[in-house]
Amino acid sequence: MSFINKQGYWISENGWRMCDTAELDYTAVPGTSFNLGVRKGAPNIILKAAIARLHREVEPMITSQIGCYTGTNSMPNSNHNSATAFDYNWNKHPYQEWGTWGANRAKVDRIVADFRGILEFGGNWTSPRDEMHFELHFAEGHAGTEQLATDLRNGLWGIWAPGQAPEPGAPSTPIPDGYLQIGSEGDQVRKLQVGMNKVFPNYRAMPLDEDGIFGPMTEAAVTEFQQRSLIGADGIVGPETKARLATYGIVLDGASAPTSPPAVPPAFVYPSTDEMTKQLWEQAFGPQAKGWPDLFGKLADGSRGKYTVEAIADLHADAGL
């Protein structure tokens, strides 16, 4: 057997078929001698690459505290039941505890960001909070997931094949001075988070943790703000985004608070009662109430007015219509 119904489910929460141990790949995590059973194919390539980077760049793995596949689970449709999730050093990062990565949290966020949205981190959840947990975000067959696995096989980050390894602890793209993005930390990030929680509480990523660490949830909130503001949506807080945030009272370094409120489009103003009465009267009785001889009656010579309904009727009659 391989794909099965497990605890009443054929599909796990992230959209992968439930499986048994026949569907696991027990090869070692790259760069280590630790053999771990992970779902064959793209999940094996991607999740073991994530473990390898956490081990190499953040904190060494404790092999007795690394797990992927479960035969049964307290959450019946758990992604562990489809072998598409792993827990990392679970005693160091207990379930429902916050801040367990300490100063290393920014490194974890950088790694997660490098995985193109395909790797989801339980530390970004609010309920439940699960800082040991990492999983595939998209359902089975997702093209981006397969492409990332292909790139990893071909040497991305030098994990599965020779290639350029990321510098430990460094963001993939240098952060320009004054910009805020994944990997940024400090008071400016905290000010951004506090301000966005206050002004935009209904955004999908809210509430943000006000921890001064620019992680994926802060990036998601910034992206939504940019989309709603009709500016470039890249999740990076640069000069244009800072200027737009300042109009909402979120004033970061390099931006200035507006000196006057934004212009309000003029509202429609209804005419006065006298003006409306005049307009209705003239519609009924013609300009200056002189009547509509050219519209409703014949002229002095017996012909009909140029634009009258009756004239059109005469034309139809003459044409035999």
TrEMBL record:
Domain Peptidase M15C: from-to ranges: 74-136
The Peptidoglycan binding-like domain, residue ranges: 186-245
Record-level Gene Ontology MF annotations: peptidase activity
Domain of life: Bacteria
InterPro entries: Peptidase_M15C, Peptidoglycan-bd-like, PGBD-like_sf, PGBDSf, Zn_M74/Hedgehog-like
Pfam families: Peptidase_M15_4 (PF13539), PG_binding_1 (PF01471)
Protein's name in the database: Lysin A
